[in-house]
From TrEMBL:
CDD domains: AAT_like. GO terms for molecular function: kynurenine-oxoglutarate transaminase activity; pyridoxal phosphate binding. Its cofactor is pyridoxal 5'-phosphate. InterPro entries: Aminotransferase_I/II_large, Kynurenine-oxoglutarate_AT, PyrdxlP-dep_Trfase, PyrdxlP-dep_Trfase_major, PyrdxlP-dep_Trfase_small. Residues 43-394 form the Aminotransferase class I/classII large domain. This is Aminotransferase. Residues 1-21 are annotated as: Disordered. Keywords: Aminotransferase, Pyridoxal phosphate, Transferase. It comes from Microlunatus phosphovorus (strain ATCC 700054 / DSM 10555 / JCM 9379 / NBRC 101784 / NCIMB 13414 / VKM Ac-1990 / NM-1).
Length: 398
C-alpha cells in the first residue's frame, strides 16, 4: 500500500510511545545559554570547563597509549594501574586505605558513578537527601531509579548548610544522604561541624552516604577537604565518588571512579556493566600516571585558579555585583538584584544581547526555584584575557 493509499489516522504514528522527562531543567537552560553565546558572540562564563589542558606528561601518556594499541575494552573495573593509583592517592592525601581489587571501580566520569550508585541502591519510593541547590544529574538519576530527591538548603546569601533542615529531612523512607563538597554551584565547602552532624545522622538512622568529591583539590585560602569517610563509623557506609576531569583539566576524557566497601562496589559494578561496561582505555594509564606524579601540577593549578577567582570577583564588584566568594570549585555566585533584575533567568537571557556575556541562572539547580531566583553562577576557569573581556563588557550594565 502506498503512502497515498494508507488509511487516515487521528493521531501521529508515534503517539503510542510515551516520553518521560526526569530531572531538572538545567540541561535545557545550559543548551539555551550555549546557543545564545554562539548566536551573540558572547564571552561564555556559563558551562564549567577550563579553556586549558592538563599536565603535558599526562597528555603524552595518552598519546603513547593510543599509539601502542591500548584502544580496546579495558577491564570493567578499570585497569589495575589506575585502580592502584586511585587508592594510593586516597591514602596519600587522606589516610584512607582501600583494596584496589575489590573497593574501587573506574567509571565513565563521576556522572556514571553517581547514576550506577543510585540504580544499585535506590528502590521505588526511597528518599535521597541532597544539598540544594544540586548538580543537575542528581535528581534525574534518583528519579530514574524510582526514588525521590529531598533538598536541604544551602541557600543564599551566605550559602551555609541548614543543619536543622537536614535533621528534619530524615524520614522512614530515607535511604541515603548525598553530599557534594566542595559544592557546585555555590562553592561552599562543608566544615568539620557540618560533616560531624551528617555523620551522626547517617549512623543513627543507618543510612548510606554518597560523597561527590569531584572538586576535592580545587580549594582556596587554605581550606581543607575533609572526606566524610574519615569520620567515625562512616567508612563502612560511604561511597566516595571523584574524577580526573576537574583535578587534571580533562573533562572530556570522562574518567571517574567510586570507592567504598567491597560489597557496595560490587553492587555498583553490577549496574555499571549494563551502562558503559568500560570506557576510556587509552586515558586510563594517563590518569594513573597523573595521580601518581601530578601533585605539584595540581597545587600550581589550584593557586592559579584562586587568582582567577579573585580576578573575576574584583571585576564583578566593579560593575556592582558582590560575589559570594567560593571556598572551592570554579564557580562563583552573585545576586543580580543590584543591577535591577529580580530573576536570574531573565538576567541570563538578557545580557548576551545587551553586552555579550553568558552566565547560568541558579534557579535551574533548585527544586524550590524561588530560593535561587535572584542568583547567577559564573565560571572562572578561563584564561585571564577571557575573564577581563567579560568584565569589560559587563561594565555597560552598571
Amino acid at each position: 500500500m502506498s503512502p497515498v493509499e494508507a488509511p487516515a489516522t487521528n493521531h501521529p504514528p508515534t503517539s503510542r510511545y510515551k516520553a518521560t522527562r526526569v530531572g531538572s531543567t538545567a540541561p535545557t537552560v545550559f543548551a539555551e545559554m550555549s546557543a545564545l553565546a554562539v548566536a551573540t558572540g558572547s564571552v561564555n562564563l556559563g558551562q564549567g570547563f577550563p579553556d586549558s589542558d592538563g599536565p603535558a606528561f599526562m597528555l603524552e601518556e595518552a598519546e603513547r597509549a593510543i599509539a601502542s594499541g591500548i584502544n580496546q575494552y579495558p577491564p570493567a573495573r578499570g585497569i589495575p594501574a589506575l585502580r592502584r593509583a586511585i587508592v594510593e592517592h586516597s591514602h596519600r592525601h587522606y589516610g584512607l586505605a582501600y583494596d584496589p581489587e575489590t573497593e574501587v571501580t573506574v567509571t565513565a566520569g563521576a556522572t556514571e558513578a553517581l547514576a550506577a550508585t543510585f540504580m544499585a541502591f535506590v528502590d521505588p519510593g526511597d528518599e535521597v537527601i541532597a544539598l540544594e541547590p544540586f548538580y543537575d544529574s542528581y535528581s534525574a538519576s534518583v528519579e530514574m531509579a524510582g526514588g525521590h530527591i529531598v533538598g536541604v538548603g544551602v541557600f543564599g546569601p551566605d550559602f551555609v548548610l541548614d543543619l536543622d533542615e537536614l535533621r528534619a529531612a530524615v524520614s522512614p523512607r530515607t535511604k541515603m544522604i548525598l553530599v557534594n563538597s566542595p559544592h557546585n554551584p555555590t562553592g561552599a565547602v562543608l566544615n568539620r561541624t557540618e560533616l560531624t552532624a551528617i555523620a551522626a545522622l547517617a549512623t543513627e538512622h543507618d543510612l548510606l552516604v554518597v560523597c561527590d568529591e569531584v572538586y576535592e583539590h580545587l580549594l582556596f585560602d587554605d581550606v581543607e577537604h575533609l572526606p566524610l569517610a574519615t569520620f567515625p563509623g562512616m567508612r563502612e557506609r560511604t561511597i566516595r565518588i571523584s574524577s580526573a576531569g576537574k583535578t587534571f583539566s580533562a573533562t572530556g576524557w570522562k574518567i571517574g571512579w567510586a570507592m567504598g566497601p567491597a560489597q557496595l562496589i560490587t553492587e555498583i559494578v553490577a549496574v555499571k556493566q549494563f551502562l558503559t561496561f568500560a570506557s576510556g582505555a587509552p586515558f586510563q594509564p594517563a590518569i594513573a600516571r597523573a595521580l601518581d606524579e601530578g601533585d605539584a601540577w595540581v597545587t600550581a593549578a589550584r593557586l592559579e585558579l584562586q587568582g582567577k577567582r579573585d580576578r573575576l570577583a574584583a571585576g564583578l564588584r566593579s560593575v556592582g555585583l558582590e560575589p559570594a566568594l567560593p571556598k572551592g570549585t570554579y564557580f562563583m555566585t552573585t545576586d543580580v538584584r543590584p543591577l535591577g533584575y529580580a530573576d536570574g533567568l531573565e538576567f541570563c537571557r538578557d545580557i548576551p544581547h545587551r553586552c555579550g556575556v553568558v552566565a547560568i541562572p541558579h534557579q535551574v539547580f533548585y527544586a524550590r526555584t524561588d530560593a535561587g531566583k535572584p542568583y547567577v553562577r559564573w565560571a572562572f576557569c578561563k584564561s585571564d584575557p577571557v575573564l577581563d573581556e567579560a568584565v569589560r563588557r559587563l561594565v555597560s550594565l552598571s
